[in-house]
């Protein structure tokens, strides 16, 4: 399995949150359908998400489901992690909302995507958990366009598993260590991916930039209009 050849270095692009990073995301997305940037998450956003994550108890997480609405089903052969959906009105994560809003606006201006909304959740993977190969956009609905993933884990070591593996259409699989501050973006309908079995507790935050659904079912974003 290859290492990504254009993972950005935090040193070359200035302060996380600056437009140099957004430019890097947009260029990567247009050239190769994904972007992997260690150190790209602004520290204030990381701290807010970490505090939010620390405030959650077991009861705040629900079993993840695959598919939406009437098609929702739990399938523990595919994914075993649990999730907590983040709510728009939650002041504890306002910096996450602001940063994702600025990123959405940037991607719309530079890639003409017409992204209209954002929804996100915190995911908890306990030792033994995984999420098998899948894509994030549900068939026939075409409403999740860009996936965004970041991590809240310090000092992830080789051998602890839990890597995200992306399978881009044109190119070798790419392995991502779920390390604090890394930002991953990819085209939701295009890039299959999986989370390898983790040997340690793993916290990730996944979000999706959406356009209006073409499905006839009412399928509102979970949050962030
Ligand atoms: C997802 C997902 C990847 C990760 O939530 O759909 O693929 O690394 N998450 O947690
Ligand atoms: Mn996914």
Sheet-strand content, in percent, reads: 15-25%
Mean pLDDT: 87
What is the helix/strand order? HEHEEHEEEEEEEE
Number of helical segments with 4 or more residues: 3
CATH architecture: Sandwich
Q: How many distinct domains? A: 1
CATH class: Mainly Beta
Straight-line N-to-C gap: 39 Å
Please mark out the parts with pLDDT under 50 across 5 or more consecutive residues, or reply none: none
Instruction: Return the CATH topology.
Output: Jelly Rolls
Oligomer state equals single chain
**Which distinct ligands sit in these coordinates?**
N-oxalylglycine, manganese (II) ion
Spatial strand order of the main sheet = 1-9-6-11-4-3-2
Number of strands: 11
Taken from the alpha-carbon principal axes, the silhouette is globular
Helix content: 10-25%
The CATH superfamily is known as q2cbj1_9rhob like domain
């Amino acid at each position: 399995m290859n290492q990504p050849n254009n993972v950005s270095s935090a040193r070359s692009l200035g302060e996380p949150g600056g437009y140099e990073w957004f430019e890097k995301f947009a260029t990567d997305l247009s050239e190769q359908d994904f972007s992997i940037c260690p150190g790209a998450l602004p520290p204030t956003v990381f701290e807010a998400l970490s505090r939010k994550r620390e405030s959650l108890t077991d009861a705040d997480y629900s079993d993840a489901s695959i598919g939406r609405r009437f098609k929702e089903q739990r399938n523990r052969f595919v994914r075993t992690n649990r999730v907590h959906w983040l709510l728009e009105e939650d002041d504890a994560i306002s910096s996450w909302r602001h940063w994702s809003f600025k990123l959405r606006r940037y991607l719309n201006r530079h890639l003409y995507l017409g992204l209209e909304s954002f929804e996100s959740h915190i995911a908890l993977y306990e030792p033994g958990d995984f999420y098998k190969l899948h894509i994030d956009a549900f068939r026939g609905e075409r409403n999740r366009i860009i996936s965004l993933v970041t991590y809240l884990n310090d000092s992830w070591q080789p051998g602890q598993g839990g890597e995200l593996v992306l399978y881009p259409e044109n190119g070798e699989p790419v392995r991502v260590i779920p390390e604090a501050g890394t930002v991953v973006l990819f085209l939701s309908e295009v890039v299959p991916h999986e989370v390898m079995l983790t040997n340690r507790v793993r916290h990730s935050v996944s979000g999706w930039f959406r356009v209006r659904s073409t499905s006839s079912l009412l399928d509102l974003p979970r949050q962030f209009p």
